[in-house]
UniProtKB/TrEMBL annotation:
InterPro entries for this protein: 26kDa_periplasmic_antigen (IPR052022), SIMPL/DUF541 (IPR007497)
Membrane-crossing residue ranges in chain numbering: none
Protein's name according to its UniProt entry: SIMPL domain-containing protein
């Protein structure tokens, strides 16, 4: 049987089975449709918005903890330290609304009993975490020094913030959109095209909280040393805080 006859026979069997075989013209039409669908040229640009503000207050996370053989003893020691903390803050005229408890915890304290023997119970630990807002930036170091002079007190973190942070975040977002459009227009003008409609907007590349805390780490008075009178901690507020927002925008390009 010739090659032509063999192909005709195979095609006949396929048609008899009801299988649809696209013709070359049909395949070309499908390719043209797909090409037309994805032929729209686009440009994807990342924009960045940055806004700076002077810090308005310090936010301090304070940890008061104590360890003892029994829960009541550990709790009493922690309670006594917390009482002293609140007294110190009252002396500095810190408003009640600027003091709040973030967390309280009671756990089993363990000590290592050997390299390969694991650990054993060594009593109980109680801890209480406070958040303080210190609005007078000139006394932050003094307040922290006074608090660290109290037994069982540690400063977990310290960072700076402003009151209306949401408004500043929104300014940064708007600035990011302006920046993205500015960049897109430069590219399209250089390429001899124009920006069309916006196809997609996606946040990313630096959303809040970009305003990084000024990390001072956990601070505590040396063990067995009483800081009386308390030494003022060298805390220097930053000159400004940076709020940043990032965005990706996809535009359709026009000739």
């Amino acid at each position: 049987m010739s090659t032509t006859g063999y192909i005709s026979k195979i095609m006949g069997l396929i048609m008899a089975a009801g299988i649809i075989v696209p013709t070359m013209n049909g395949m070309a039409t499908a390719q043209e449709t797909a090409s037309e669908t994805y032929s729209k040229a686009t440009i994807v640009i990342q924009g960045t918005g940055i806004v700076t503000r002077k810090p308005e207050f310090a936010r301090v996370i304070l940890n008061v903890s104590a360890r003892s053989e029994t829960i009541p003893e550990a709790s009493a020691a922690s309670k006594e330290a917390s009482k002293k903390v609140l007294e110190k803050l009252k002396a500095f005229k810190i408003a009640d609304t600027d003091i709040k408890t973030l967390n309280m915890d009671v756990s089993i304290s363990r000590k290592s009993s050997g390299k390969f023997s694991g650990s054993s119970e060594d009593g109980y630990r109680t801890s209480q975490q406070f958040e303080l807002i210190l609005r007078d930036q000139t006394t932050v170091g003094q307040v922290i020094g006074e608090l660290l002079a109290i037994d069982n007190v540690r400063v977990q973190s310290l960072f700076w913030d402003i009151e209306k942070s949401q408004e500043v975040d929104d300014e940064a977002r708007k600035a990011a959109v302006v920046d993205a459009r500015h960049r897109a227009e430069i590219y399209t003008q250089a390429a001899g095209t124009k920006l069309g409609k916006v196809l997609q907007i996606r946040e990313g590349g630096g959303a809040r909280p970009f305003n990084q805390p000024v990390a001072y780490g956990a601070m505590a008075a040396p063990a067995g040393v009483s800081a009386s009178p308390a030494a003022e901690m060298p805390v220097v507020p930053p000159s400004e805080l940076t709020f940043e927002s990032g965005i990706y925008i996809v535009w359709e390009l026009q000739p």
